[in-house]
Amino acid sequence: MARKLEPPPPGFDDNPEWTEENFARAKPFSEVFPEQYASWKKNKGGRPPVEQPKVHIGFRLAADVVKGVRATGPGYNARVEKVLREALAKGRF
């Protein structure tokens, strides 16, 4: 069973207006918590960098070709890349 919370005392403000004295005492997060700041700066998230990132190119194809490739289902980009690699290896370009 959930416990009922007590109401705050009269005059309580959990977000008071800052005074000039508060601003004068304030320190940057990096000074107050240097280890945590360093770990946050080091870990930027996202995917790790790759040795040879893929390159975006744009070219036009016939609508029926695009429709046929997309009809093969999810992952068609990888399949098209595989076909192109095989054609390059066989010297068909």
Structure notes:
- This protein has 93 residues and is mainly α.
- The protein is elongated and about 80 Å long.
- The mean pLDDT is 90.
Task: Provide a count of the helices.
Answer: 5
The average pLDDT score comes to: 90
> Strand count, sense and closure of the main sheet?
none
Radius of gyration: 29 Å
Helix percent band: 40-55%
The residue ranges in which pLDDT falls below 50 over 5 or more consecutive positions are none
Structural class: mainly alpha
N-to-C SSE string, H for helix and E for strand: HHHHH
As a percent range, the share of strand residues is under 5%
The N- and C-terminal alpha carbons lie at a distance of 72 Å
Number of strands: 0
Q: Tell me, what's the shape?
A: elongated
Concise overview:
With 93 residues, the chain is mainly alpha-helical.
Primary descriptors:
93 residues, mainly alpha, single chain, elongated
Topology:
Layout: H1 20-25, H2 29-32, H3 34-42, H4 63-70, H5 76-89
